[in-house]
Delta(3,5)-Delta(2,4)-dienoyl-CoA isomerase, mitochondrial (Sus scrofa), 368 residues
Amino acid sequence: MAGIGVSPLFGCGFDALAQHGGPCARPLNFLSSGYSGVSVAMTAVAMAFFHRVRSLLTRRLTAPTNLSLSLHPMSSFTQEEASKAAPSEAPGHNYESLQVTAVQKHVLHVQLNRPEKRNAMNRAFWREMVVCFNKIAQDPDCRAVVISGAGKMFTSGIDLVDMASDIFQPQGEDVARISWHLHNLISKYQETFSVIEKCPKPVIAAIHGGCIGGGVDLITACDIRYCAQDAFFQVKEVDIGLAADVGTLQRLPKIIGNQSLVNELAFTARKMMADEALNSGLVSRIFPDQEVLLEAALALAAEIASKSPVAVQGTKINLLYSRDHSVAEGLNYMKSWNMSMLQTKDVIKSVQAAMEKKELKTITFSKL
């Protein structure tokens, strides 16, 4: 769709108006074309609005200046709001290994909070991450999440001291029963990071210092990854005699897109430094230090949270579906998804904000 053209389902797009110099031949009849679930009152209001939009569009597109959307990653309004945020403990989130704060409206900060142990992943962590992100997934106030590590590094990976009995002394009377127990145990560990991927809210990883072993499993389940210049990444599992089993080997190849590099990292456990992580596509941006990194990650979360939650969460769900399916299957799924989601009031609010050159941050979208 060129520019910011409205979906063809709305009858015509911005580009069509520009091309023909006026209202399109067929009416903007989307909201009155028999879509179920839209009230008569809503239809009347929507039709009146779209007639007004059509008139505004015609005048705008024939005026000397063109309507455009900012391509800057974050608006000044959003950055100011993020900087003013006063973190407070998020209600309902009380954990041993995590600290969850509401840094500003619609944004949560989940912090690995065992700095004295280099944020090593103990039993409490593996359990609490699932509880935490299941709550976030159902939280209508939350629209974006930042996850980071307290102290000197993101995480040193699995806490071998705390987890030794589970891993090296599994329960069971014979091989079959021990294997069955380990199968269930590994399934639980996998869910610790899969729950991040399943959460419909975008999750941004802000990584500083070491991101080792299970840390790579964690960040590959996130949607966006930023890092500080001092960050490094290690697929460490071969150094402790096992193959990574909770997500890295499945997700990292799809993120990097370079099987040779993935194999090298996984076979050798060597460190990947920040610059290489950026060049390979593991992270999208590097920042000079942890403080600047966290500010940028929170500002990005604020920018995402300013958008329609229907649009953002639908986008995440369809991106993940399309990653694991063919183009044709992804398009079919998208079609089924949007035949209901396009009926949201958020479309009307977003288009109106664009027409009036308003920041989306000033628009109130209903909770989802």
